[in-house]
Write a structure and sequence with these properties.
By secondary structure, the chain is mainly α. It has one domain. It is about 90% helix and about 0% strand. It contains two helices and no strands. The chain has helices at about 1-40, 45-75. The chain is elongated. The mean pLDDT is about 80.
Length: about 80
């Protein structure tokens, strides 16, 4: 009974970690899509607005890199 319980917990943990890793990869991809949107829109704006959108694009890239770091960290823990 105890061994069965441990197996179930291990399977759940493995499933959960895979789910978190996939979520982080999706987050990074989504954040980079937001970045690309900001850059595209910035090209159509006046200089002042363009600057703000390009700063936003940089922030989205930072978020994407952080999501990738979290993904690598989760991989190393396994």
């Amino acid at each position: 009974m105890f061994v069965k319980s441990l197996r179930t917990r291990f399977r759940f943990r493995a499933f959960f970690l895979r789910w978190v890793e996939e979520a982080d990869m999706k987050k990074a991809k989504t954040y980079r899509e937001y970045k690309a949107d900001c850059i595209r829109i910035a090209q159509l704006m006046r200089a002042k607005d363009r600057e703000a959108l390009l700063k936003m694009a940089d922030a989205w890239e930072d978020r994407a890199r952080e999501a990738e770091r979290q993904e690598k960290k989760a991989e190393q823990e396994n």
